[in-house]
Every structure is written in structure tokens, then in C-alpha cells.
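Hi R.,

Here's the chain you asked about this morning:
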Amino acid sequence: MQYLAIDPGKRTGWASFDEEGKSIEFGAIQGYDKFLDWLETQHPGLLIVEQYRNRGGLTNSFSDMPTSQHIGAIRRIAYKKKIPIIYQEPSPCLAIGLRFLGVYKTYQGKHVPDEISALAHGTYYLRKQGIQKV
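And the predicted structure, written out as C-alpha cells:
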């Protein structure tokens, strides 16, 4: 079974892993529709998706919540293709995943690029499940 980790957003990061949890490739795709078109061509056995929650405040005031809509579209594609989804909170999964990758200090206090975030989320899940070996 292959795994696909996703960090959804306007620029969506993704990372694919083989059945043993080894990273195959990773990248990012700009634009919701372009990413969703790409996702429809993929055939993973499991999606690992970074969860997004509206935490209120001015940042999301009067927002149409595009990231939440994007996750909904990912969910629909997964449903139609019968692909299970594991949702992960951004924290602490991202920080621990970055530590597993050995790049935590590189991004400490900085924005983590979307493709690195996806790679970290996938690594975190696969290590915690004992699929990926150290």
C-alpha cells in the first residue's frame, strides 16, 4: 500500500511513501483545482491530511474558509475512490515529524514549506504506526 500525505492550502504540499514507509517523492502544487485534478490521478491506499480548524479571530473574519473547502473536496475524492483518510493536527504532529526528519531547528520559529510539512506529517504517521523504520 502506498501512502500520500497532504498539507492543504492555496499551495498544497504532498509527499508520497511506499508500503514500507520510504519517501518516494514530494512537492507542492499551486491552486486548489490544479491540485484536485492531480489528486484524482493518484492511487494511494491511505491519505494522511493535515487538519485545519477555524480558531476564530480576525484572520478568519468574513472568510469563505478556502482551506476547509479544499479539505472537503479532498474528502469527496477519497470517498469516491474508497481511500481512507487519517487527519492530523498541525501541532504537535508537525514538530515531531520535523524532528524525525532532522530539520526541526532549520524551521524553528519559521513557516515550514508546504511540501516539507506534508513530508513531516507522513513521516510522523508512518513512524507512529511502526511502518517506517528509523
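The chain has one domain: 3-128.

Let me know if you need anything else.
M.
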